[in-house]
Structures are given as C-alpha cells and as structure tokens.
Specification:
Aspartate Aminotransferase, domain 2, alpha/beta, 2 domains, 391 residues, 13 helices, homodimer, Aspartate Aminotransferase, domain 1, four-stranded antiparallel β-sheet
Chain lengths: 391, 391
C-alpha cells in the first residue's frame, strides 16, 4: 500500500514542470537549446568570485555563516536601497525583503494572499515559474489580453471592474516568455487603474537591467508605489546559483511576507547575501553589467537577423530591446509542439508557447526562443534549421 | 484603504513567531541568553572556509554559480550517501533531496501532505519551527504524550487507531525543546506501530551528531525505512547561514517534495551545496565534529551542575546526552512567563515552555534552556540568577 491517499488536495492542481520535461531531451548530446531561460555561465563575474569570498570572510567572519533575520542580511538590504534608487525606485532598508530567488518571493506572495478559489489575474501568456509558485495555493486564473505593447489596460480594467481579483501578476519589462515591454503610456494607465480600484499588482522585473538598446522605462512601482509589490533578482546580473531575489512591498504585505518566509526557510543564505552585498556596494555589479550586456547584445542581434533571413513570411516575432527571449508566432492552426519534436530530431530545441497560457488551447502556434546560451553562429544555424522544419 | 481584505484565510491561523518577539528583549546589551537555539559561532570551521571556497571555485568553476536541479547538487547528494551510511541510514543518491535548511523540507512536507483540517500528530511539547512550517497549511494538531523516554508509543497507537492522521512529526534524538531522546525499545515499538498502520512518520534529526556521552541509538528511519521521511541538516555541524538541509523519503513523497520545492525556490544555493559537498567528501566534517562536541560538552556539564547546585527542590530537568537544550519543569501552578520577565530584569533570558505546546494552557510551568551560546562561568551565573528569581 502506497501513500497516494495522504497527498494534499492541492497536488491535484499541480503538474510536473513541462519545461523541465522538455529539457530532459535538451540535455541529449549535440542538442542546440533555445529552450532554456538560464544565463550564460560566461556572464558570471568568475574572475572576482575568489576575491569576493575573501572580502566577505575578512569583513563579516562567522557572522556570514550564522543564522540571520528573515528580512535579509542588513548590508545587502542597504546596498539594495542604492541599487534600486538608480532604477528610479525609492525605498528604505526596512522596505526591502530578501528571498531565496524571486521564486521565493512569488511563493510567499501566494501563501500570503491566495485562498483556494481566489482570482489571480495574469497576462496571456505569462511566466511559468509564477504559475508554479501560485498554483499550489489553488487560485483561479483570470486571463488578461496582451499585444506587442504588453498588457492591454482595458483588459485589466474590465477584470478589476468584475471584482474579486486578489492581485495582478505582470512581467512588464522584456517579459518571459514574449520579450515584450509595456509602454510608458500603458504603464501610466495601469498605475491609474490599480490606484482607482485599490488593487495590488505584483511587478516582476528580473530582466530590466539587461537592456541592449533604447531607453529605460519607469517601473510601474515608481508610478504607484502604494499598490505594487516590486520583485527583482540578482540571478541575471550576478549568479543564479546564489538564489538571491528581493522585493519592495507595501507595509502590510511586507509584514506577512516575512512571517510566511520564516516558516518556509527561516531566511536566505547569509553567506550568499553577504557576497551580494559586497558585489553591489563594492561597485563590482556596476562595472560588470556592461560585460553581460556586451555578451548578450550580439546574440540577440544574431537571432533577430537569422529570423529575418530564414523564417517563412507567415511568421511574426517580437523585437525586444533587452532580456533573454524572443517570441515567435506562426499561422493559426500550426501545432508548435509537433514542430518541437521535428526540430528536436534535427537537434534544435525551444519551448512551445502554449505552456505559458493559463487557458487550454491558447497559443498553440507560438514559441519561445532563448538567445543567451548559444553563440551567434550556432543561433543562425538553429533558426535556419527551425525554418526548414517549418517549411 | 489597506490590503487586509486581501490576506489569505490561512493568515488567521498564523502568529508572529513568539520566540522571535522574546529574542527582541534578548538583544538588549548585557543580556545573557539561554533562550536561543543557535550554534556558537566558535563551532563553525572558520579556519577552513577560505580554503573550501577555493576548492569549490577551482573544482566546479561557473557550475557552482549556475541554476541546478531542484533535487540537489549531484556531488552533495553523493557525499550525503556516505555520511548517512555512517549514521546507519541506507540510501542512494536518488533518494536524497537537498533543501533550504531542514525548514525547507518541513515546509515542503506541509505543502505536499496537508489539506485544510487534516490531522498532524506531534509530541507535546514539539519543535516550534515545525509548527510554523505546517500551520500555514491549516492542519489540526493531534497531541501525543511524552515522558522522560520521549514519545509514549501507546499514545501514538491510540491516535493512529482513531484514524485520519496524515503524518506524525517527531524529533526523536535530543529533542527541541526537551533534549530528550526516545529509547531504542520505544523506537522499535514506534517502528512496529507505523508499519502496522502504514503510517508516515517525519523524523527530524538536527542534533543526532551532537552526542557528548553514551551510545548512538538507531534512527526510526533505519527501523522502518518505508514509512519514514528522515530529515537532517548541516546547520549544527557546518554552518546554519548556508541553509543546507536534506531528507531521505519514500519514493512517492520524494517525487512530490521535488515538485513543490520547484515552485517554492527552484533549488537551494548551488555554491553552498558545493561547499557542503567538499566539506563532507574532503573529510573536513569528520575532523571538525570532535571540536564542536568538545566545545559544547563542558557547556552542557556546566549547566547540569549549576542546576544541581542552585535550583529549588521542586524543579526537575532533563539530563540529555547531547544536543543543545535542557528542559526544566517547576511545580504545577508556576507561571513561567511571569518568571521570564523577572529574569529578564536580572539580565537572563530563556524560553517559557508553553510556546512548544499545541494545546493552550499546557506547559505553563516549563522552560527551555540553551547552553551552546554562553561560556561555562556565565552559564553558572545565569542559572544561579534564575534560581534566585524563582525563590
């Protein structure tokens, strides 16, 4: 006799991570993966890691290895105040919470806010990791319309007007999966709408610093600070394996995020938070970020050129000014998952877009393409190969 | 208008961590704390930390800073197989999951198993951190009787016989808060009972390696491996700030622990897991553990002597062979929280025992005393001062 009868009801709503299942094929020898969403290892500041660990051990000694407050390591919270100010986000040390990756913030938000059956509004398509964080708390998802300029404010207002939305979850800048960025005009409209309805918006911003062209756009948080939980991470500008995410949140939400985090993991790694504190406060991040951008920009340009050169006329794709992804759409009726298995035979992997939608049957003809892991020549070959599979 | 109306129902069941509130007083200057449950910083192997980080950076390079599988860093899981074998626990790499502290395992267990209203059986008294992990999933607690030999097997059988218990949570060795250890005879009875009822038992073993006298006792996991989730941590034998816990679990439970952990924090810090892997596999843990034991043994002996010398006749206390805590009980009718505030005035802090009980009103006359943080002389002074407050 097994233990199936012991599983909590919530497990019925939870699927194994499909991207992960797909990535099993991806690890086959010789596979070129445009499927992942992970930073290139060459983007990590490996040349300073040894020095950073020395700095931390010298400066903090055993304190860097001891239990620490749930809210986060003091010097890191202080460093993040400056870091966020440069992004136009005003905060105090007390307003910043550190978590185990931005995933840790997303889980805590789900735990604090979602009772079974509650409504959570998300973009169509949206970030899969957020769904994986929220779904165990058994919400119903309300689908918000998007286009090339990101979330359609009218769709948001309609959803809020209907009522019962616990919170809205958005990735406004270089979205995962589409790479799209919500325009400033729309951000202003969204800020006005959430203020009008006293709604709570979760702004997830993992990619904002990875801008290859164009001008920074203000965060929605900066336009409606009282209504936004702003989340970001050091995974894309330092190292994802250190699992350092953080958020700025309205007071009541913040208080509860700390209480639930204490039950979830007590606090995030003190040592890694100390490394992050020195990485930011020591000016290393500021000096290293251009290297990351210079690494990714040509990869993204290579992918956009390859798409221009090779893709059939009935395909369209996003042209993001930053981030890690390009979103391509084929003609209606195309089943991108079929194409996926064909492409895998030719040693190219991507993620069929349907997995990023909460409504079944949507996005069948879409795909997410990542450009951070392969080199420019390989990207061109992979897109050419994909195009051949399509024809 | 605030956001109170947005909070999930579960927040109603969750209190702010009381120990934490008490620790606020503890940080006052000059306070001698017997309240905490944290390792002495002198127990950390600081002299090898720099070398360990070098070893990890040399050996794993960027891999130690990249995203990694949810299950845990391969070399750490391998090292833990050997480590657990020395503790009499047979496992394979695949059966071991790494988590963000043992707290991370406890949260995942709650998420996988507890639906609102489910029954979870715990010792009276039990570990507060486990309650903080489980309570957000809204269980009802079933109270199990304990005495100086730990859990009373008859009480367990009675609870299982009544039915509906999702799992049993125990700290069988040097329990937090009592320091008590379940005898081998009782462990055999408990193993037989959980097999008979096909029950699932969560065996939390953070302190098992901290034995100052006497012989190791087999884990319940080794007596009923198919019915036990065995949890341990490196927080007490390496460094708590690295947040490395782990578990060995039956297959179905393990599968679900991985799925929920993916939504909670994707995976635990790769870098810290690599440090832990090298700490164990390089023989550092084996060489360092005697230092930790030699640090704590005289502290514990000092506290036991001080209790013998100073405490009033109507007090009794546990005499653990290891761990971090001693449990003292005063006469019926004593309100230990009143004594707490008196003692704090005299600059001595401890934890009133009632906070470790799930039934309100129980344990009013009990207290938890920690001996890992103060030196022997201070421990004697603190116990003497406590005794004076009591009289």
């Amino acid at each position: 006799m097994g233990f199936d009868h012991l599983l909590a009801d919530r497990t019925r709503a939870m699927d194994v991570n499909v991207i992960r299942e797909i990535l099993k094929v991806v690890s086959q020898p010789g596979m070129v993966s445009l499927a992942g969403g992970i930073p290139a290892p060459e983007s990590f500041p490996m040349e300073i890691m040894r020095d950073l660990t020395s700095i931390v051990i010298d400066k903090y000694a055993s304190k860097a290895f001891q239990y620490d407050p749930t809210e986060g390591f003091g010097p890191l919270r202080e460093a993040l105040v400056d870091y966020l100010r440069q992004k136009g986000i005003k905060s105090t040390k007390e307003e910043i919470l550190v978590a185990s990756g931005s995933q840790g913030v997303l889980d805590a938000i789900g735990k604090v806010l979602i009772s079974k059956g509650d409504l959570v509004a998300v973009e169509a398509p949206t970030y899969l990791g957020a769904l994986q964080a929220f779904t165990p708390y058994e919400p119903h998802y309300v689908r918000l319309d998007t286009d090339d300029d990101g979330l359609d404010p009218a769709s948001l207002e309609k959803a809020l007007d209907r009522g019962g939305i616990k919170f809205i979850y958005l990735v406004p800048t270089f979205q995962n999966p589409t790479g799209r960025t919500i325009t400033l005009e729309r951000r202003r409209q969204i800020a006005a709408i959430i203020k009008k309805y006293n709604a709570l918006l979760v702004e997830d911003d993992p990619y904002g610093s990875l801008r290859y062209r164009g001008q920074d756009i203000p965060t929605i948080q900066s336009l409606a600070p009282g209504n936004v939980v702003y989340i970001s991470t050091l995974s894309k500008v330092f190292a994802p394996g250190l699992r350092i995410g953080f958020c700025v949140a309205p007071e009541l939400i913040r208080k509860w995020l700390v209480i639930v985090k204490q039950g979830t993991d007590l606090h995030s790694s003190t040592f890694n938070q100390a490394l992050a504190a020195e990485y930011i406060a020591g000016g290393f991040l500021e000096r290293h970020l251009p290297n990351i951008i210079n690494l990714y920009r040509p990869k993204q340009e290579a992918m956009l050129s390859a798409l221009d050169s090779h893709m059939p006329d009935d395909f369209t794709w996003s042209r993001p000014e930053g981030g890690m992804f390009i979103w391509a759409e084929g003609p209606r009726g195309l089943d991108m998952e079929k194409l996926y298995w064909k492409a895998v035979e030719k040693k190219v992997a991507f993620v069929p877009g349907k997995y990023f939608y909460t409504d079944p049957g949507e996005g069948m003809e879409t795909m997410r393409l990542n450009f951070t892991m392969a080199d420019e020549k390989t990207i061109d070959w992979a897109i050419k190969t994909l195009s051949e599979c399509i024809r």
